[in-house]
Amino acid sequence: MIARFAIPFFLTMGLVVAPLLVWLICRLALPRKYRRWCFLACTLFIWGVMWYGTHPGFDELQVHHIEFASPDLPETFDGYRIVQFSDAHVGTLTGSRLSLLQSSIDSINTQQGDMIVFTGDMQNILPDELPPLTSYFQQLHAPDGVYAILGNHDYAVYQTGTDAEKASNCKKTVQSLRDMRFDLLLNEHRVIRRDSDSLVVAGMENWGNVERMPRLGDVGKTLAGVSDSAFVVLLQHDPSCWRDCILPQCKAQLTLSGHTHGGQFSLFGWAPVSLRYSEWGGTTYEGSRAIHVSTGIGSLIPFRLGMPREIVVITLRRIEK
Question: How many CA atoms are closer than 13 Å to the CA of 24, on its beta-carbon side?
Answer without folding.
Answer: 6
